[in-house]
Amino acid sequence: MQASAPRKTAAALTIALLAGLCAAPAFAHPGEHHAVASFSLGFLHPILGWDHLLAMLAVGLWASQQPRRVAWVMPLAFPAMMALGALVGLQGGALPWMETGIAASVAVLGLLIAFAVRMPLAGGAAIIALFGLVHGVAHGIEAPAGGTLLGYGAGFIAATVMLHLAGLLAGMWATRPAASGRVLRAAGAVVASAGFSLLAFI
User: Fold this and answer.
1) Where are the domains of the chain?
2) CA distance 133 to 141
3) The pTM is what?
4) How far is residue 195's CA from residue 192's CA, in Å, rounded to a whole number?
5) How far apart are CA 195 and CA 7, in angstroms?
6) Are 79 and 160 in contact (CB under 8 A)?
7) pLDDT per position in the chain (202 positions), as tens?
8) Phi, psi (5° rounding) for residue 49?
9) Residue ranges of the alpha helices (H) in the chain?
């Protein structure tokens, strides 16, 4: 008996995420600054680290499960607060629980998706804003010492928005009437598992 398409999709997503976690460093900010700041380096920073990548995709996936007016606020709240956090990081500010907070954001967002938790506008925006702030501080701390910091910042904000939109569109596809919401919930469970794995290695 052949597996259904949704099950195949969920299985493929699980394998891809777990394989990536095994093959790449868990964190996008290992403590070494890039040589020269640029838009391209800023753009790659969230994409090359699984903690940032999963969290930013998860924001879009969770947003797709919300009422429409909430769904479009979440992908805006995260980069806005991330920019503020980056300014804090650039000024030398740091959070003692920053790495834990980033890993926890992946785990929590995954659980919220897995259980299809719906939030009022204020509550959902507050959760997303907090996670955005933590990720932003990490981006600011890891900003290169030389080059164009404005371009670097524009790069990681552009990548963040792109990942949010990718997650949102994927979530909307997975929750359309012709599809099963179980695929999206399964993806949330995978993201949550990855988050707890990141927490275990801190």
Assistant:
1) 36-200
2) 12
3) 0.82
4) 5
5) 22
6) yes
7) 444 555 554 444 444 444 444 433 444 444 444 458 899 999 999 999 999 999 999 999 999 999 988 898 999 999 999 999 999 998 888 788 899 999 999 999 999 999 999 999 999 999 999 999 999 999 999 888 777 889 999 999 999 999 999 999 999 999 887 677 889 999 999 999 999 999 999 8
8) -110, 125
9) 5-23, 39-48, 50-63, 68-71, 74-90, 98-114, 121-141, 149-174, 181-200
